[in-house]
Design goal:
2 domains; Rossmann fold; seven-stranded mixed barrel; about 375 residues; ten-stranded mixed beta sheet; Glucose Oxidase, domain 1; alpha/beta; about 30% strand
């Protein structure tokens, strides 16, 4: 590795609890405030960076070497970077991969995302695990940080900031089903999985009306992943409450899972440090089978708030017992907290897209 890597500018991460971590700059120059979260994925840094669920957050990679297979735009999960800034132990200056079209440092400079490397990411992760998620600021002058202002930082208008601005149609080969994908910050692989199953996909902005969504006569509805606290979206919750009355088969993923729970009167709570990584075990309570899943969320549906007359808790996190999925009993819908589209991550639960298409086929047959 060249000397230039170690001669880069000094930079600091200041946490709201007063701890300071010293490192070096890479990517774009600047100062950034955000919620500090960590992800344990050993691969998938490109999917992590372009996952809009990280909006407003400073992402810490626990795996020590990042960037070794370069920049591969075909693997992006959106057209822009979701994270506010990026922290790694080491970044690879000379990636080796036949698919690579560049390096991580150049990419972060191009998209104006601040990077910090060389800090003790193990110590930082332990701090978050022990104390919980907290705010932090990346700065070249740690003594200028106002602790009160840092602690008061909140992520605002998260879904509004990441959703598409207009409706778009993506045609499949076959066009067997029409799916309305409501975008709260959706990952492109959700769309890819639907297209593979002969679904024409209409992507709708998060604040679309029920009338707009029904105008395409969808066979099914997907509620996508996205950033922030689900309770910060009262207008969307109101829209989904009315959309639910149509009895169109619905599949909620991550934030979509949480929003559907709120629509049905259930509650949510903030996890101490969230589930972010590609090795989260989720148990199917019907079969007893455990799936390894990819996850990225800071909130969870409260199991105690679930009305057994409305929904059945289908999946549970093996590590902490939190709700990982619901089967609804009063209308054709189910939802999961994890990412069945998975990239990057395990493909254990991709069958849920088959379950969704089967639900659409059953509903269409019943309507004939």
């Amino acid at each position: 590795m060249s000397k230039s890597l170690y001669m880069s500018d000094q930079l600091y991460l200041v946490l709201e609890n007063g701890k300071i971590f010293e490192g070096r700059s890479f990517g774009a120059k600047g100062e950034v405030t955000g919620e500090i979260v960590f992800t344990t994925g050993m691969t998938g840094y490109l999917e992590t960076l372009t996952d809009q669920s990280y909006h407003g957050q400073i992402v810490v990679q626990t795996f020590p070497l990042i960037g070794n297979y370069g920049l591969i735009p075909a693997d992006f999960e959106s057209d822009s970077v979701g994270a506010s800034a990026y922290i790694v132990k080491h970044w690879c200056q000379e990636p080796s991969n036949f698919r690579s079209e560049g390096d991580l440092d150049t990419f972060l400079k191009t998209v104006n995302i601040v990077g910090l490397h060389g800090i003790d990411t193990r110590a930082l992760t332990k701090t978050i695990r022990e104390s919980g998620v907290m705010n932090g600021k990346i700065t070249c002058n740690p003594h200028s940080v106002d602790g009160k202002e840092l602690a008061a930082y909140t992520i605002k208008n998260a879904v509004k900031n990441v959703t598409v601005s207009r409706t778009a149609l993506f045609k499949s080969q076959g066009g067997k089903h029409k799916v309305a994908l409501i975008d709260f910050g959706y990952k492109y692989n959700i769309k890819r999985e639907l297209l593979k199953r002969q679904c024409d996909v209409w992507v709708f902005p998060a604040h679309s009306s029920v009338k707009d969504i029904l105008s395409v006569s969808p066979d099914g509805i997907i509620l996508s992943n996205g950033p922030g606290d689900p309770a910060d979206n009262p207008e969307i919750i109101h829209m989904l409450t009315n959309l639910r009355k149509t009895n169109i088969p619905t599949f909620g993923i991550c934030l979509g899972h949480q929003l559907l729970a709120l629509v049905n009167g259930f509650d949510r709570f903030k996890l101490k440090y969230g589930h972010r990584g590609a090795n989260q075990p989720a148990k199917d309570m019907l079969t007893g089978k455990v799936y390894i899943t990819s996850q990225n969320h800071g909130y969870a549906v409260s199991s105690d708030s679930i009305d057994p007359g409305i929904a059945r808790e289908r999946y549970v996190n093996v590590n902490d017992g939190t709700c990982e999925g619901l089967d609804y009993l009063n209308f054709p819908a189910f939802s999961v907290q994890f990412h069945p589209e998975a990239c990057a991550g395990p493909l254990d639960t991709s069958f849920l897209f088959d379950r969704f298409t089967g639900m659409m086929e059953e509903n269409n047959y019943a309507a004939q």
